């Protein structure tokens, strides 16, 4: 079990502390929900979580199969909906591999997105969309 400590600082800001490492960061409400967007919002953290989770599990799979993906980038786009209540509606991930992969490696890594623990923890109503590109195509 991992403990994450959140202290509400007022003015819609929180300080978040990751207990195992002691690292801290701040959150703020987004501009479209009464915040000032001084820091990342909680729902932006969800988008960041899925992107970094996909990158991490791809890294695990790549390391186990001697596939070099250092420099891979994942752009994550979050769309909100306000009805019947405010929530994340769609997450789109654009995964950009730094180098061309052969078909076997591409298939292996592109299938990893289906087993991301963050993805598996989301409501089924949240739409997920993935695209894969190579840095030379961007």
Descriptive account of the structure:
The chain is an alpha+beta fold. The chain has two domains: about 30 residues, no CATH class; about 100 residues, K homology (KH) domain (GMP Synthetase, Chain A, domain 3). Helix content is about 25%, strand content about 35%. The chain has three helices and six strands, in the order βββαββααβ. The strands form two sheets. A three-stranded antiparallel beta sheet has the order 1-2-3, with no helix packed on it. Strands 4-5-6 form a three-stranded mixed beta sheet, with helices on one face. Strand 4 and strand 5 form a beta hairpin. The longest helix has 23 residues. The radius of gyration is 17 Å and the shape is globular. The mean pLDDT is about 95.
Name the CATH superfamily classification of the largest domain. K homology (KH) domain
* Whole-number total of structural domains: 2
Main beta-sheet strand count, sense and barrel state: 3 strands, antiparallel
Task: Indicate the CATH class of the largest domain.
Answer: Alpha Beta
Structure annotation, total helices: 3
Q: Could you estimate the helical fraction of the residues in percent?
A: 25-40%
Number of strands: 6
CATH architectural name of the largest domain: 2-Layer Sandwich
Name the overall outline: globular
Radius of gyration over C-alpha positions, nearest whole angstrom: 17 Å
CATH fold topology of the largest domain: GMP Synthetase, Chain A, domain 3
- Unreliable residue stretches: none
- Could you tell me the mean pLDDT? 94
Secondary-structure element pattern, one letter each: EEEHEEHHE
Helix-and-strand structural type: alpha+beta
Strand content: 25-35%
Q: In angstroms, what separates the terminal alpha carbons?
A: 40 Å
Q: Major sheet: order of its strands? A: 1-2-3
